[in-house]
Amino acid sequence: MEAVAAGMSFLFIALGLYFVIKKAVSEGINSSQEIKKLRSELRMLHKELKKDGNKIDKKI
User: What is the pLDDT of residue 60?
Assistant: First the structure.
């Protein structure tokens, strides 16, 4: 009987750990997607600044 109780306790701890790790991994993936999105936005802004800089140079 004690072995069954210990086994059930271990099972609940293992399942809890599994779900915590699963959530952490999914949030990590979301974070990497957000970083990629921010990088692409930064590239676009950089291109726009280059264009504006070239226009200013042409006016001078």
Answer: 59
Q: Which alpha helices (H) appear in the chain, and where do they start and end?
A: 2-59
Q: What is the mean pLDDT of residues 1-23?
A: 84
Mean per-residue pLDDT for 35-39?
Answer: 87
Cα(56)–Cα(42) distance, integer angstroms: 21
The tokens 């990629």 sit on which residue?
36
The amino acid occupying position 14 is A
CB half-sphere exposure, 38, CA atoms < 13 A: 6
Spatial distance between the Cα atoms of 5 and 7, rounded to a whole number of angstroms:
5
| Separation CA 26–CA 23 (nearest Å) | 5
